[in-house]
Amino acid sequence: MKSFSTLLLGLILYQNVLATTHLVYVSYPSFSPSGLSVTVGDTIFWKGDLSKFPIASLSVPENAQAFNVNDGTTFSYVVKETGTYKYQCEEYKNAGMSGYFIALEPEKGTENNDGSMVYINYYSHAFHLVTTDAIPHSNY
Questions:
Q1: Stated pTM of the model
Q2: What is the largest CA-CA distance in the chain?
Q3: Is 63 in contact with 103 (CB distance < 8 Å)?
Q4: pLDDT tens digits, one per residue of 9-47
Q5: Cis omega (within 30 of 0) on the bond before 29?
């Protein structure tokens, strides 16, 4: 049981290092932000009154899951395909309430001689450092 717990914790930490959750606020007259650049594996999380501002995908890449939500206060979508995803608020589409996100390939890592990995995302100008030791990242 202990090894299963350790494995589960490892998988959660691995996912958190490589995946990002992007928050989009839903309120009239627009989504905030209305455009995102994300990576395959990331999660888009919409927050707002979805019964008042229902969201529907207009276009998604081939093999990607379309979405349509019209109740609740949150909705999440895990990005599984590269490409451009466009969506709109069905109720206020004529007012221009729409958004998009562009999904890119996952970050590519570079292994260093000490076994650490650096994942660079050139689009968001960010990096993740994964080390084999227990030194907090704030010390780098």
A1: 0.66
A2: 56
A3: no
A4: 444 444 444 578 999 999 999 999 999 999 999 999 999
A5: yes
Cβ-Cβ contacts under 8 Å for 40 (sequence gap 6 or more): 79, 80, 81, 82, 103, 104, 105, 106
Q: For residue 85, what pLDDT is reported?
A: 97
Q: In a 3-state reduction of DSSP, which class is residue 93?
A: helix
Tokens of 58: 């207009």
Which tokens hold the place of 45? 């999380």
- Determine contact, residues 76/61, Cβ cutoff 8 Å: no
> Could you tell me what percent of the chain has a pLDDT over 70?
63
Place of tokens 């001689």: 113
With a CB cutoff of 8 Å and minimum separation 6, the contacts of 31 are 24, 25, 46, 89, 97, 98, 99
